[in-house]
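Quality-control log, excerpt.
Job 1 of 2 completed; input and output follow.
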Amino acid sequence: MKRKEHHVVPNSKGGWDVRRNGAERASIHTDIKQYAIDRGRVVSRNQGTEFIIHNHDGRISNSDSHGNDPCPPRDKK
């Protein structure tokens, strides 16, 4: 089963999108990356998904787990 994720990705026409993996359209589109991160993080928390932030080149710059973390820290049970 594919894990549930939201991604902040650059839009080819400018700005930033928040997309759910497998979705055709963006959930959120903004001109400023930080707005996409802030709004996308709220959506990710509400839906219990992984939240992955990409740079302009497509590389992952950061990620957060708001659902069932597949690799929880060892000190958490």
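Job 2 of 2 completed; input and output follow.
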Amino acid sequence: MAKQKKVAKRKTLKRARPVKKAVKKAVKKVVKKAVKKLPAKELKIYKALLIKEREKIGGDLSFIAKETLNRSQRDASGDLSGYSYHMADSASDNYDVEFSLGRATDEQKLLYRIDEALRRIKDGIYGTCLQCDKAISRKRLHAIPHTSLCIECQKANEAK
């Protein structure tokens, strides 16, 4: 009985493999038809822009972390005692920390968008809008290489 189950299982696996291959081929054909790929030369330029921007932001992020998160209350206030005598001093220090953490959050989000753009280059869908599947203008890609939307879709999203 166990042998029959194993044989039946092998047969279904053998039948499933060609189906999976056929589905993958069909998906690739649809993607190729729907997406007009950018030339490899341009993709290299955009990839270099993205990597350069990623390195710059990574350095900024590490600087923010070093200056904000690794400083004590005493270092931030400049007091010798570590306790602030005035509420305004404490509020100012808290504001600086909150502001720096907000900047770090924004930079982290930008790093995520850059990584997504690099993944789209790898997948071969970079340069197409993720909402309407139209090509993103080259001017927009040069200005904002991590963008995922064409200008029309971006405007529509901002209007909401």
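Post-run check on job 2. The CA atoms of residues 8 and 117 lie 44 Å apart.
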